[in-house]
Amino acid sequence: MSARLDKQTHKIEQEVISQNLPLNVQIDKVAKIRGWFRPRDDSKWFPIIRAYLNGETDLDETLRKVTAPIDEAINADTLNDGFPWDDLWYSVIHSAKRISYRDEAAFGNLIALMKAFKERDVPAKENGEPAYEGLPEFGLYSREAFNDSPGGGAGYTAPEVSAWASCNYFLARLTQDGLFDSSLFAFWTLSEALEQNITDSGEEDDMAATMVQKIDAFVPAAAVWVIGAGKALYEQKEDNHPKHGKKATMLEDLKDHESMWPRSARFSRERWAFWKQRFGEIAAMETIGEETRKVANEAVRAMEKIEDK
């Protein structure tokens, strides 16, 4: 166990959770205590996105403000000279974490902003290709932010569990809407929650947590993938991921000697059925949190609805 992480958890419990602060404020404070990948303290973009999600500005005005520094860099031919994409994308991802995954209106607004950003057709001067369409560097910084998972860069407190589920829901929505394919994250998250033998933390683990705490952290994050992007996952070709290279290695790493799913690490309808079975089993567990049981049951219903179409 890590004394440093235990100290952070104690600080979160005493200085954040006990104060009964709004969830978004709790997540801001937790991000600083844990040292999450997050917006810079003097961020250009985070205040703009926060104002938009608070209803203080509309989509058009927000898009103009968000893209103004990028347009300036394009016009100055400096877009490839250390442009702070990290601050932009951490501002977006952290904003998603601050929203409950059940807040469809807020997530709809954030997805609308990402869609409007992607559809801008301003070309970069260096090569004349669209500067916005590919969401430059988003894959890199979303992968970094994904390290702030319970048991990794995050713990198992309520605000951290909420932020983790919301981060996954945001990536799921981007995947489902064809804005950015983050489906590899879905396989990691679903495998961790549904295919691994979850136990209480041991001495070799950095962060202490009970089996129930882990289930309550992992399952909602997995469930929002099939709720938010189930159709996109279900329609993937079987074994669609490469059998060689970095992504294949990452997927194969999901399998270990304690896995409940010892077969191929790639997608199949058989694996989908196993996930649905596991969500059903978890929904019936009386020892875990009510929200976990509820969202697991919602995942089963979402999967059945997709299968029936």
What shape does the CA trace take?
Answer: globular
Are there runs of 5+ residues with pLDDT below 50, and where? 242-257
Helix coverage percent: 55-70%
**Range of strand content:** under 5%
CA distance, first residue to last residue: 47 Å
Mean pLDDT across every amino acid position = 91
Radius of gyration using CA atoms only: 20 Å
Count of individual beta strands = 0
Overall tally of structural domains: 2
- The DSSP helix count reads 13
Report the structural category: mainly alpha
Element-level helix/strand string? HHHHHHHHHHHHH
The biggest sheet amounts to: none
Describe it.
The chain has helices at residues 3-15, 23-34, 46-53, 59-75, 85-97, 104-118, 138-145, 158-176, 183-194, 211-234, 246-252, 269-283, 290-308. By secondary structure, it is mostly helical. The protein has two domains: 12-19 and 152-309, no CATH class; 36-145, no CATH class. Helix 4 (59-75) packs parallel to helix 6 (104-118), helix 5 (85-97) crosses helix 7 and helix 8 (158-176) packs parallel to helix 10 (211-234). The longest helix has 24 residues, at 211-234. The protein is globular. InterPro entries: OpdG, Oxopyrrolidines_Biosynth-assoc.
